[in-house]
Design a protein that fits this description.
- This protein is of the alpha/beta class.
- The protein folds into 2 domains: 120 residues, Aspartate Aminotransferase, domain 1 (Alpha-Beta Complex), CATH 3.90.1150; 238 residues, Type I PLP-dependent aspartate aminotransferase-like (Major domain) (Aspartate Aminotransferase, domain 2).
- The chain has 13 helices and 16 strands.
- The chain is globular, with a radius of gyration of 21 Å.
- 47% of the residues are buried.
- Bound molecules: pyridoxal-5'-phosphate.
- The site of pyridoxal-5'-phosphate has 12 residues, from helix 4.
């Protein structure tokens, strides 16, 4: 395939929670064959790790960034399997499918696990986390999702982190769909381990996840890992010693990620990215409401990363046909994951702009017409 063909490539636009639409420069950064022990590649890893700490607002004296092969779930599994001591107990604060997955990871690993289950349309209260910890002194670690991608709700990491630290427990945060676009001060939120991945708000391509770990906590986990490949302590030691991954790294994906990090900086950092995603979200919600769609969450709880919309209660609406009609027009949306309501999801993240959202809204009008669903003629379910 010639370069011209790649440059004129026009993929469908992804309004999903990831993988996402990426810039052309991110895709082009992959057209290299670098050896994993190559000096230039090692420098790239170093630069990536440095930039990740910057995004988290922390310094290398307090925190370290550890890339890990595999998708986001592999990163979560790596943390839970690497940092929970044999006599540890995990509290999972859960208000959606991704919180549920955290508990599943711990249970499969035979880590004693308790859950604080909160309705999917509600934020957990820091006082409830505090009460759960006070009742059960055996709990050593707490895990919570930052942006619960099921609904798009942003959980109160700062408030929860404070009550956890006050009780000397450790805090694991799944920031998969928020890191890079929702400001978070890791030190202030007392986060011990934050996990995110390459192909969400940083706008890289899939291939690896990464952990931003508090050094003091990480150093105490030597020998705790229940897995060879997913051992984050060993991965960190390896990176510190020779700058290399222990096992074959996703070289192309890392090169794309470095370019994505440069673009994040050029855009103006986390605040500027947040502003673009918020503009996408506001454009989306205004247009959807105008057609009669209703969000699953109340606007007060809704974040700007991804939005769950209720199916229209119209006899001619079918999600499969709606999805297909949009797909044929070049737009990819996402099925719902809320457990107690029929919803679909539309993401505001990736290399997309308010103009792309306006185009999507036009395609949604056309799709509704194709289905025979008149806008504003239904009650949301
Ligand atoms: C995307 C996501 C994950 C991980 O998904 P992978 O498919 O394994 O990359 C985990 N948690 C949340 C909150 C997510 O949004």
């Amino acid at each position: 395939m010639s370069d011209t063909r790649i440059r004129s490539w026009k993929d469908k636009i992804l309004f999903t929670p990831g993988p996402l639409t990426t810039s052309q420069a991110v895709k082009l950064a992959m057209l290299r064959d670098l050896g994993s022990r190559d000096f230039e590649f090692i420098e790239s890893i170093k630069d990536i790790r440095r930039r990740l700490l910057q995004i988290g607002g922390v310094t290398p004296s307090e925190y370290t960034a550890i890339p890990m092969q595999g998708s986001g779930t592999f990163g979560l599994e790596a943390v839970v399997s690497s940092v929970m001591p044999a006599d540890g107990k995990l509290l999972v604060v859960r208000n959606g499918a991704y919180g549920k997955r955290l508990a599943q990871i711990a249970t499969v690993l035979k880590v004693p696990t308790v859950e604080l289950v909160v309705p999917e349309d509600k934020k957990p209260a820091a006082e409830d986390v505090a009460a759960t910890l006070d009742k059960d002194p055996g709990i050593t670690h707490v895990a919570m999702v930052h942006c619960e991608t099921t609904t798009g709700l942003i959980n109160p990491v700062l408030a929860v982190g404070e009550v956890i630290a006050k009780r000397s427990r450790q805090f694991i945060v799944d920031a998969m769909s928020s890191f890079g676009a929702v400001p978070i001060d890791l030190a202030k939120a007392h986060v011990d381990y934050l996990v995110s991945s390459a192909n969400k708000c940083i706008e890289g391509v899939p291939g690896f996840s990464f952990v931003v770990a508090k050094l003091g906590s990480l150093k105490a986990t030597a020998g705790l890992a229940r897995s060879v490949s997913l051992d984050i302590y060993a991965q960190w030691r390896g990176l510190e010693e020779n700058g290399q991954f222990r096992f074959t790294p996703p070289t192309h994906s890392l090169l794309a990620f470095r370019q994505a990090l440069v673009e994040l900086e050029e855009e103006g950092g986390v605040e500027a990215r947040a502003a673009r995603y918020r503009a996408n979200y506001e454009t989306l919600v205004a247009g959807m409401r105008e057609m009669g769609f209703e969000e699953y969450l109340s606007p007060h709880d809704q974040g700007y990363i991804i939005t769950s919309f209720r199916f229209p209660a119209h006899p001619r609406f079918s999600f499969e046909r709606f999805y297909k009609a949009l797909n044929e027009r070049g737009y990819v949306i996402y099925p719902g994951k809320v457990s107690d309501a029929d919803c679909f999801r539309i993401g505001s993240i990736g290399r997309i702009f308010p103009n792309d959202v306006r185009d999507l809204l036009g395609a949604i009008r056309e799709a509704l017409a194709e289905l025979g669903v008149e806008p504003r003629t239904w009650q949301a379910q």
